[in-house]
Amino acid sequence: MGEDGSQARSEIRRLLDEHGHRPTKAYGQNFLADPNIVRRLVGAAELAQESQVVEIGAGTGAMTAVMASQARTVVAFEVDESLAPLLAETIGDLQNVDLRFEDAAKIQLETVLGEGEWTLVANLPYNVGTGIVLDTLQDAPSVKRIVAMVQREVADRLLADAGSKTYGLPSVTVGLHAVGRIAFSVPRQVFEPVPRVDSAVIVLDRVPAPLLSTRAVELATAGFAQRRKMLRRSLSSVLPDTERVLSEAGIDPTSRPEQLEPMDFVQIAEAEENRR
Ligand code: SAM
User: Fold this and answer.
1) How many angstroms separate the CA atoms of 170 and 158, rounded?
2) Which of 38, 43, 198, 214 gives 20 to 30 Å between its CA and that of 221?
3) CA-CA distance, 265 to 218, in Å (whole number)?
4) What is the pTM of this model?
């Protein structure tokens, strides 16, 4: 193990072997087996001594240990309780780590985190990654920054610009709550076991959400559910007087959802509100 707790591939293999743990696909268990990438990922979070970190998916504890050496506290969630003995070996002695065996997709992050500001740092499991990012942005305002490893394709979708093929509801939600960027790309070979796809690390910095952002996301949900249809059709079931409200918002009723910027959905919500 590295001095900061990072784990090379040989170390991860030894840990898995000694604890008889076979990585589970259902939990997206592709562990980071390159200490340099772990350091770059954690580095992108720009942690300081007083930082409070929440990690989703502790895995073998490689990231957890590095973060614990840089931050005040790390709350680490892990759904797979069979990793408990392995994690006891790697991070069991770290006083500032609070390891919780819970399903992060089922918790209300805002209510389980303590007071103050938090940074979410994670190598996210592929099956719940998008949901965790979007739920955190919408429901956990004390998380001010998200630094997450996700599949490259997911990163592209979360950060897509209006008008592009990958632009959709996730991009609108991110656009309303954060300023985001891809920090760096990550080849599949750095994981153990090696997955089928490449990854990327994204950094999302929270910005104050506009009023009516919840309604804007509801409207975007309806729009993108029928992506090819014009908004005057796709929004008709959720927005009374659709055509007129769209016009009042300055939006062409014949446009399609991917042509709208995130703030355009807010404008529609505002036009709707003004009619009340
Ligand atoms: N952080 C470790 C690393 O970088 O090597 C592990 C990353 S691995 C991609 C994802 C981890 O998330 C696995 O340990 C998996 O068991 C855990 N996980 C999967 N679904 C989860 C969930 N719903 N809640 C909490 N942890 C979850």
Assistant:
1) 5
2) 198
3) 9
4) 0.96
**Can the peptide bond before residue 141 be classed as cis, meaning omega within 30 degrees of 0?**
no
Return the percentage of the chain with pLDDT > 70, whole number.
Answer: 98
> Which domains are present in the chain?
9-206 (3.40.50.150), 213-274 (1.10.8.100)
pLDDT in tens, 131-185: 999 999 999 999 999 999 999 999 999 999 999 999 999 999 999 999 999 999 9
pLDDT (0 to 100) of residue 276: 77
The answer, yes or no, to whether any atom of ligand 1 lies below 6 A from the CB of 246, is: no
Three-state SS for 130? helix
Minimum-distance ligand 1 atom for the alpha carbon of 30 = 9
Q: Which of 19, 21, 30, 31 to mutate to test the pocket of ligand 1 (most atoms within 8 A of CB)?
A: 31
| CA neighbor of 78 nearest in space, from 49, 45, 101 | 101
List all residues 6 or more positions away from 247 whose beta carbon is below 8 Å from its beta carbon.
Answer: 253
| Ligand 1 midpoint to CA 21 (Å) | 14
If you write DSSP's letter for every residue of 218-255 in order, what string do you get?
HHHHHHHHTTTS-HHHHTTTTSTTHHHHHHHTT--TT-
Q: Are 130 and 155 in contact (CB under 8 A)?
A: no
